[in-house]
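Lab manual, section 2.4: Encoding a predicted structure.

Procedure: take the sequence of the chain (252 residues), apply the prediction step described in section 2.3, and record the output as C-alpha cells. A sample record is shown.
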Amino acid sequence: MINANAIILPISLSLELWLLALLFRRGVRHHFPVFFSYGALLAPVTFARLLTFTNYPKYFMVFWSTDAVLLLLGLAALHEVFRWVYRAFYEFWWFRLIYYGTIVLVLFITVRNAMVHPAVQAHPVVSLVLNMGIAINLLQAGIAALFAALSKPLAIPHRRYSFGIVAGFAASSLGPFAGYFARSIFGKNVDFFTQYASAVPYILALLIWLLAFSKPEPEERAWTPPMPPDEMLRLVHGYLSVLGAKRKDDER
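Recorded output:
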C-alpha cells in the first residue's frame, strides 16, 4: 500500500515553493512579515517531513513539533491581516477586550483540557497539539467569519492580497478541525481520515494563496488599507449611535 505522504508531501512542497517565490516577488515581507514568515517556513517543514515519513519515530517528532509552531504562527498571520484591514476597531476598548480575551480564554481552556482530559491513545505532547489544533482552527474560522461579516456593512473595498490570505486560512481551518477532533476522540483508528482531513483543505488553501498572489495588484491599492482608519472609525461611531438611539426608543 502506498503511503499517502508519498503523494501529498511532494505536491505540498511544490506549491509551497511556488508560493514563497510569489511572496518574494510581491514584496509581502515588507507589509505582512508574519504571514511571510509563515509562508517561508512551510517548505522547510514539508521537506523535513518528506525526509522522515518512512521512519515513524522521527516523523512523529518532526510532525507534531512543527505542527505546533505552524498553528501558532498561522493564527498570528491571520490576526496581522485582520488588524491591517480593521485597524479602527482596535480604538474601542471593548473590542480589544472581547477579541484578545476570547483568544486567551480559548487557548487557556485548551491547555487545561489537554492536561485533564488527554486525547485517546496519544502522547501528552500530541494531546496538547491536538487540543491546540482544535482551538486554533476554530479561532481562525471565527476570525475569518468576523472579517467577512464586517466587510459588507462597512462596504470594505476588495484587496486581492489581504482578502486572499484570509480566504486561504478560512478554507484550511475546518478540515484540520474535524481531523484533530476525530483523532482526539477515537485515537489512532482514524489516522487515515485525520491525515486527509488536514491535507486536502491545506492544499486548497495553498491554491487560494497562489491565486491571490499570482497577479500583481496596483501598488497604491495593494499595501494601502482598503478604508482609512479615520473613515472607518466615523462609520463605526455612526452605527453605534444609531443602535444606541434605537435601543433607547425600544426601552420607551
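Check your result against the sample. The mean pLDDT is 81.
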